[in-house]
Design brief:
There is one protein chain. This protein folds into 2 domains: 4-263, Rossmann fold (3-Layer(aba) Sandwich); 267-341, Substrate Binding Domain Of Dnak, Chain:A, Domain 2 (Up-down Bundle), CATH 1.20.1270. 44% of the residues lie in helices and 13% in strands. It has 12 helices and 9 strands. Strands 1, 2, 3, 4, 5, 6, 7, 8 and 9 form a 9-stranded mixed beta sheet that branches. Helix 4 packs across helix 5 (159-172) and helix 9 crosses helix 11 (301-317). The relative contact order is 0.17.
């Protein structure tokens, strides 16, 4: 299966012949007893400095990537797929533009990333049933590799399109619309899909999942975004203002959180992260005063330090598309930022 691109029914789309595997597996697997799941206590290196250093993710964690259109979420997913320490990557491209499938595979994922990946494509022009099946199939593939003891990274783009597909089906069969036209069944389907990922029994494999959530008009209170935030283990928010300023990845650190982070890192790392966020927040709150020259140095020692550190903070948060930032080097860069800043 690795290195292949298939549709929602498992049929190859890449012209490389039939799949060698003949294993039959259900699209909807039974849920794992929550007491049997291994706790999240191992870091997963995703190769992105801002995430490794400030929003550390663990094996088996479920994260949301919240973004509007055109702010770089596909590029961020591709960076994680290429540079992650996970053994297998399963990518579900659900309900997105058909043109983007080939672009993602060839230009963003690349040959090295594809070699240890399986891509499931169910673009926007297929039926809503097939879009939902594509998400379930990608999850089933991830479960298969987890059952083999592998550490899997599942990237699904997007959870919102999955919810929209269920909305189409539910409205067609007469289910009454509720919040923003989404029927109640949509909000039951989301946790059922997400809860299939995560860690398996102690000593087994894991599925670390990143689900993109489209925030229409950059509305973080969209019902799907709100529901996803409640069922996921953290969220990474991409900022349009940062993207428009040429800041990539456009991660809004102040609005993002990794709920499992405190169980993964030591006290020294946690203190560095707290200090980083304090300095960033202090600068951002006074940004307009600084820009117009209304702030006089010496009035606030903490703000003076934040101003001195800000160029290094900005440099730490930015990363080239082809640049890999392993977990160890991300921590070293975080330490060096404050060591140089005094």
């Amino acid at each position: 299966m690795l290195g292949r691109v298939v549709d929602a029914s498992g049929r190859p789309l890449d012209g490389l012949g039939p799949l060698a595997s003949k294993l039959d597996a259900p699209l909807s697997a039974p849920s794992i007893n929550p007491l049997d799941r291994e706790p999240i206590h191992h870091v997963l290196d995703v190769g992105v400095r801002a995430i490794n250093g400030l929003l550390t993710v663990g094996r088996g964690q479920r994260m949301g990537l919240f973004a509007g259109s055109g702010v770089g979420k596909s590029v961020l997913l591709g960076t994680m797929a290429r540079y992650t320490s996970a053994e297998v990557i399963v990518i579900g491209l659900i309900g997105e533009r058909g043109r983007e499938v080939k672009e993602f595979i060839e230009q963003i994922l690349g040959e090295d990333g594809l070699a240890r990946s399986v891509v499931v494509a169910a673009p926007a022009d297929v039926s809503p049933l097939l879009r939902m099946q594509g998400a379930a199939y990608a999850t089933s593939l991830a479960e298969y590799f987890r059952d083999q003891g592998k550490h899997v990274l599942l990237l699904m783009d997007s959870l919102t399109r999955y919810a929209m597909a269920q909305r189409e089906i539910a409205l067609a069969i007469g289910e009454p619309p509720a919040t923003k036209g989404y029927p109640p069944s949509v909000f039951a389907k989301l946790p059922a899909l997400v809860e299939r990922t995560g860690n398996g029994p102690e000593g087994g494999g894991s599925i670390t999942a990143f689900y993109t959530v489209l925030t229409e008009g950059d509305d973080q209170q969209d019902p799907i975004a709100d529901s996803a935030r409640a069922i996921l283990d953290g969220h990474i928010v991409l900022s349009r203002a940062l993207a428009e300023a040429g800041h990539y990845p456009a991660i809004d650190i102040e609005a993002s959180i990794s709920r499992a982070m405190t169980a993964l890192i030591d006290d020294a790392h946690l203190e560095r992260v707290r200090h980083f966020k304090q300095m960033l927040s202090r600068y951002q709150r006074n940004r307009d005063l600084i820009a117009v020259g209304a702030y006089a140095p010496g009035r606030d020692a903490q703000l003076d330090r934040a101003i001195a550190l800000y160029p290094r903070i900005e440099s730490f948060l930015q990363q080239g598309f082809r640049e890999c930032a392993p977990f160890a080097s991300s921590l070293a860069a975080l330490d060096a930022l404050f060591d140089q800043g005094g």
